[in-house]
Amino acid sequence: MLKNRSKSAPSSPMSHQRHSLPNAMEGALLPPPCLRALPDAVRGEEIAGTENGATAKSVRRQPQSPPKHSINIKPGEKVTLVVDRSRFLVDPAQLATRPNTMLGRMFQNATLEDSFVRANEKGEIEIEEGVSAAVFKVLLDYYRCGEVRIPSNLFLPEVREACDYFLIPFTPRVVKCTNIGSFMHELSNDGARDQFAVFLDQHILPAMFLVAESGERECHIVILHEDDVIEWDEEFPPQLGEELIEAIYNTKLYRFFKYVENRVVAKHILRERGLKKIRLGIEGYPTHKEKVKVRPGCRPEAVYNYVQRPFIHMSWEKEESKSRHVDFQCLKSKSITNLEAAAAEEDQDRLQTADTGVLPHQLAADSGPGE
């Protein structure tokens, strides 16, 4: 969340007209090349150009960000961090005791001459907007006592997001929260992400590979309990529709999808992996045939026993809109052919009437069976 450090300006044909900048302006955002080559007295005024007989439009001065300065911290000296318009006086040596965090990496060296850390004209280090002062004050407790004590008036997901950005561990050993329910929810979300990544690689992807080898581009997977017994009658199989259903026997995965929150986490991960049309839920799955119904004049119908089991439906089809589009130009219309044949037959009847003076249906009526 530090302000973007400056980058060297790209070379241009007018680079020989530039003037060397002082060290205090090294971090400033330079104007475009067309303005850097012009003196200050010319900027903002109309420039008369003779090329192609045209007059160049007036050039306005581009806004510049305030200059950034490298800082030199002496041993024992404190620095000021500006967060959400609030100032915090911190000891860089204390922050450096946590080198695995972002602030610890910033202040690892006593002398900060690297361009990674820049200060404003007052010598203060500004943290990018997005972190409130109340949350940042809580995070500073981690460098003092090794704990992040979250009061009840703070929104826990906001603190969690700040911990992730500043690389502060969000673990029960570090975080102390009065709202135990919200804290456990965040921990369960972390565990669900890690656990589903394992389930995806070890169980779900192999089932998807089997479906893809047959040319399919979508998959419907049912998660069964390891103790489930599936016995389908070959003569009267259950009606499952046109979808190809793959079954995975895994009790841990079955228990994982029992919770709605875990299904939400899994759906988010599948979207990150590039899958589409993702549906997760619980549906009935047939296990064995109970009886066969026979109705007069109808085909016998098998009645199956169903159990509620989780399912996953996903697709990796790239051109799904084109797959369901029918190009009528590629279809030969029978109606046009019939009209052409009818028109040709009508023209032939007209020619025959002009030659004989008798209509075709009169010829058919006058001609008897004996002739």
Distance between the termini: 105 Å
Mean pLDDT: 74
Largest sheet: 4 strands, mixed
Helix proportion: 25-40%
Q: What is the helix tally?
A: 11
Q: How large is the radius of gyration?
A: 38 Å
Residue ranges: pLDDT <50 for 5 or more in a row?
1-63, 110-116
- What proportion of the residues form beta strands (DSSP E)? 15-25%
Strand tally: 9
Global shape: elongated
Output the helix-strand order: HEEHHEHEHEHEEHHEEHHH
Oligomer: single chain
How are strands sequenced across the largest beta sheet?
7-6-9-8
Class from helix and strand fractions: alpha/beta
Descriptive labels:
single chain; 371 residues; alpha/beta; 4-stranded mixed sheet; 11 helices; elongated; disordered N terminus
Summarize the structure.
The chain is built from eleven helices and nine strands.
Structural account:
This protein is of the alpha/beta class. Helices cover about 35% and strands about 15% of the residues. The protein is built from eleven helices and nine strands. Strands 7-6-9-8 form a four-stranded mixed beta sheet. A three-stranded mixed beta sheet has the order 2-1-3. Strand 1 and strand 2 (about 85-90) form a beta hairpin. Helix 6 crosses helix 8 (about 260-270). The longest helix has about 35 residues, at about 180-215. The radius of gyration is 38 Å and the shape is elongated. The N and C termini lie far apart (about 105 Å). About 10% of the residues are buried. The model is unreliable at about 1-65 and about 110-115 (pLDDT under 50).
